[in-house]
Write a structure and sequence with these properties.
The complex is a heterodimer of chains A (312) and B (291). Chain A has 312 residues and is mostly helical. Helix content of chain A is 70%, strand content 1%. In chain A, helix 4 runs parallel beside helix 8 (175-198), helix 9 (203-211) packs antiparallel against helix 10 (216-227) and helix 11 crosses helix 14. The radius of gyration of chain A is 24 Å and the shape is globular. A two-stranded antiparallel sheet of chain B has the order 1-2. In chain B, helix 5 (106-116) packs parallel to helix 11 (217-223). Classes of the chains: A mainly alpha (312), B mainly alpha (291).
Chain lengths: 312, 291
């Protein structure tokens, strides 16, 4: 490399750039292309670009939610549609909950000096340290045994009388069970990133609002919230991404009706003979929301990422 | 009042489970029983693990994986940051493309690489055949290496982006002074850029190391820990012990070992950033006194 950053980049520099871009997005593009191929085309591997694109794989993946019946399918084997609904429900609700609760907590910390900044950043780090695999055992045990409404209890009895079932209602196997653990896992990070934004909101603004007769909640929703939108975006993307992509805890907690998409993908790859086309179409569908977020909000994502490391 | 919901949720769903796990690791615990019905067996779970061949193997695999991945990623990421540190119009586009691999679900990343490593239909073996070289059994004979390559693909950009951010916030004056004094490009890197970036780089490295111990889904989809135990990292072993062998007590003990390792890393990192802050404050104080 030559000495300074202001001399002209040479061709080798652009070649390096090109290689890097190719390496970074090559596998994604490959999956995208393959998801439009029939299995025969994928395996015979006649050169990558010449093939007849087909949406059969997507039809097969979503066969239980399509409004028409694809001709090439006589039986709807893999039911991804339901899993997509579950994934969307879980990811959206846990993102919203985390943001609302996290916002309140971050505001409380910075404005009422409830705990020090240090405590928060330490908690963030401590939780970041805990691998999902470590949470697997206790969460599995607790959600199945302890966090249940007893059949004799009032609420449990009410649920049983209304909906039927075996009597005791446990968190395991419900959407709310999975949502609860995701919210808990993401809260420290969200609180931490939001409070770094709230600190920058000038106090005089809030005081002005209060003089005009706003109560603390109004001050928060009408003055503070609009000013920390970038922070909210970063926090939302990170929370959504974790809830949307997570596999292990969901697989421990979900039952037949609450499976999320990652679980189905894993279940369908562990067999010896993989239907590449269909599974790649599903993978592509799972990858689309994060890809869209990346393309429209990469700045916020990088903010969140660098903030996590530089001030850890 | 504002804090209450956050505190309650974290206490119920995070701290209580962790305590519960520590408690459970001292018991003979079966998924069909509730914890209070199980027998107390002291530290038997912990000692049993040390004589367990499979556990030691998976510990070795975890350490090999984590350290080789982090070292290679640091070298590549920092090297690329140094190379690409120029005023470039397309830089933000480049960064956007680079963070894609990190945003996509690990399960999907595993899927893509599993396809590319496929012994007959995979991309790599196609290329090798086209070049007239013998096929390589990627996920068979070189499973650990293949898994490491996939992780490097996914996470080098993370280090690249952080290193680049650190590089671009360096004080221009120091670099200019060096240039005027006639330092070559290489000397600038070794004596000025790297030492000034060191604080951020160390934190980045520790963060990445912590994350490397948590990798699970990519490996699960690519190899399922196989062949044999050659890629069974500890996170995977915990999941299998709990779900297949139904030894919750043992899995809990294993989780505690993993947690302990990560705790040491975290303490190192926290201690380091504290030390950094204190040193900075002292430098500032000293500067003030001089004035």
């Amino acid at each position: 490399m030559s000495s300074a950053s202001n001399d002209r980049p040479n061709p080798a520099f652009y070649a390096l750039l090109g290689t890097l871009i190719f390496m970074a997005i090559g596998p994604v593009v490959l999956m995208f292309v393959n998801s439009f191929k029939l299995d025969i085309d994928i395996i015979s591997g006649t050169s990558g670009l010449f093939f007849l694109p087909t949406i059969q794989n997507y039809e097969a993946a979503l066969c239980d939610v399509l409004w028409y019946e694809p001709e090439h399918l006589d039986y709807c084997a893999i039911r991804f549609g339901g899993a997509f609904k579950n994934s969307i429900i879980i990811a959206l609700i846990s993102t919203v909950l985390t943001l609302v609760i996290g916002c309140m907590a971050a505001y409380g910390i910075t404005r009422f000096r409830f705990m020090g900044r240090d405590t928060v950043s330490f908690a963030t780090l401590a939780v970041r340290m805990v691998p999902p695999a470590v949470l697997l055992v206790p969460v599995f045990g607790l959600w199945n045994n302890t966090f249940c409404l007893d059949r004799d209890g009032m609420i449990g009895g009410f649920i049983r009388d209304t909906f039927g079932g075996r009597g005791d209602v446990c968190l395991a196997g419900t959407h709310s069970g999975i949502i609860l653990i995701y919210v808990a896992m993401n809260l420290p990070f969200v609180i931490w990133i939001l409070q770094s934004f709230i600190v920058q909101v000038p106090r005089s603004l809030e005081e002005a609002a209060r003089v005009d007769g706003a109560n603390p909640f109004q001050v928060f929703y009408m003055v503070v919230l609009p000013l920390i939108k970038p922070g909210l975006a970063a926090a939302a993307i990170f929370t959504f991404r974790i809830a949307w992509n997570e596999y292990l805890l969901a697989s421990a907690l979900a039952d037949r009706d609450t499976k999320t998409v990652p679980i189905l993908i894993v279940n369908n790859t562990s067999e010896f003979n993989i239907e590449w086309g269909v599974i790649m179409a599903t993978g592509m569908l799972l990858a689309i929301p994060p890809i869209i977020f990346t393309l429209i909000a990469s700045k916020q994502i990088i903010t969140g990422m660098t903030a996590g490391a530089v001030k850890g | 009042m504002f804090m209450a919901p956050a505190l309650i949720i974290m206490a119920v769903a995070l701290f209580y489970p962790l305590m519960y796990m520590v408690y459970g690791s001292f018991r003979e615990w079966d998924p069909s029983q509730s914890l209070s019905e199980s027998d107390f067996i002291g530290i038997a779970n912990y000692t049993k693990l040390w004589s367990d061949e499979a556990f030691r193997e998976s510990l070795a695999v975890t350490l090999t994986f984590a350290f080789s991945v982090v070292i290679i990623e640091m070298i590549l990421g920092v090297g690329l940051a140094l190379l690409l540190d120029r005023k470039l119009r397309g830089m933000s586009v480049l960064r956007t493309l680079f963070i894609l691999p990190m945003m996509i679900a690990p399960v999907v990343v595993g899927l893509m690489w599993r396809f590319m490593y496929h012994p007959t239909d995979g991309t790599f073996n196609r290329w090798l055949t086209a070049l007239g070289i013998d096929r390589v059994d990627w996920l068979g004979d070189h499973a650990l290496l293949s898994v490491i390559i996939a992780d490097i693909w996914q996470w080098t950009p993370f280090i690249f982006i952080l290193a680049l951010a650190a590089l671009q916030s360096l004080p221009r004056s120091a670099l200019e002074a060096a240039r005027i004094d006639g330092a070559t490009g290489w000397q600038q890197i070794v004596h000025i850029k790297l030492p000034l970036m060191a604080p951020v780089l160390i934190v980045t490295m520790l963060l990445r190391l912590i994350d490397a111990f948590k990798v699970l889904e990519v490996i699960l989809v690519m190899t399922e820990g196989g062949p044999g135990l050659s890629t069974e990292i500890m996170a995977l072993r915990i999941a299998r012990t709990a779900q297949e062998f139904r030894e919750l007590g043992e899995a809990a003990a294993m989780s505690n070992y993993l947690l302990l390792m990560l705790m040491i890393l975290t303490m190192l990192m926290y201690g380091f950033s504290r030390w950094q802050e204190i040193r900075e404050q002292r430098l500032k104080m000293a500067a003030k006194e001089e004035i």
